[in-house]
């Protein structure tokens, strides 16, 4: 069981590391088609996971704790707090889309520092989301399968792949060596397994508030989908429309739904 959890926690970090390594293989930036495909697939996985793996278990757990028909309350509160938390992070440290430069309003921080800080902070709730699922599976407090938790970890890893490239490639273009640029990208992802592990270690303590944490993780993930992934999968290049992102969203959503419902 421990090895399963360890592998699951490291998968999102692996996505960031592989994305950061793109600086060694790509001369300029990621292909727009590949970006759309990855963003669409990850968005589908994360939306399905947010509903079936996080929000529904949140309400079911609240009902089991005696809230009855009011079991939706923790889900609503946690979901809104999760979205508001990521919104606050975006206000404090403006996030980036592919090929954007960071221009923090009135910020005295260097652009590179702001870029690393923004992505690092956004990775913490994603690590918590994986940790919460594995904590629910480990304690048996929530009817979540290891397969569903693994699928969520893979979905976040796919979303992290272009984020790793967001860090390493612009840093290299600003003068850093490829090795240092890659290393900075890798560092932004290390917070995910740490956040996930801390969540699991506190599993017994957090069981009473698990419904709120599950829905908080759902809100944080869906915010990432709405704010980051959907604009990227729907962005038009050279005034030409592409349905690739939509098709990959369908595939990702369907795959996560199958894994969670059939194997859950």
Helix/strand structural class: mainly alpha
Mean pLDDT: 81
> Rg to the nearest angstrom?
18 Å
Distance between the termini: 16 Å
The helical percent reads over 70%
What shape does the CA trace take? Answer: globular
Number of distinct helices = 10
State the assembly state of the protein chains. single chain
Order of helices and strands: HHHHHHHHHH
Low-confidence stretches: 98-109
The portion of residues forming beta strands comes to: under 5%
Query: Main β-sheet, in a few words?
Result: none
Q: Give the beta-strand count.
A: 0
Question: In words, what does this structure look like?
Answer:
There is one protein chain. Helix content is 78%, strand content 0%. The model is unreliable at 98-109 (pLDDT under 50). The two termini are 16 Å apart. The protein has helices at 2-20, 32-67, 72-92, 111-139, 146-173, 178-189, 191-201, 203-206, 210-234, 244-263. It is globular, with a radius of gyration of 18 Å. Helix 2 packs antiparallel against helix 3, helix 2 crosses helix 5 (146-173) and helix 4 (111-139) runs parallel beside helix 6 (178-189).
Can you lay out the helices and strands and say which pair or pack?
Blueprint: H1 2-20, H2 32-67, H3 72-92, H4 111-139, H5 146-173, H6 178-189, H7 191-201, H8 203-206, H9 210-234, H10 244-263
Helix pairs in contact: 1-4, 1-5, 1-6, 1-7, 2-3, 2-5, 2-9, 2-10, 3-4, 3-9, 4-5, 4-6, 4-7, 4-9, 5-6, 5-10
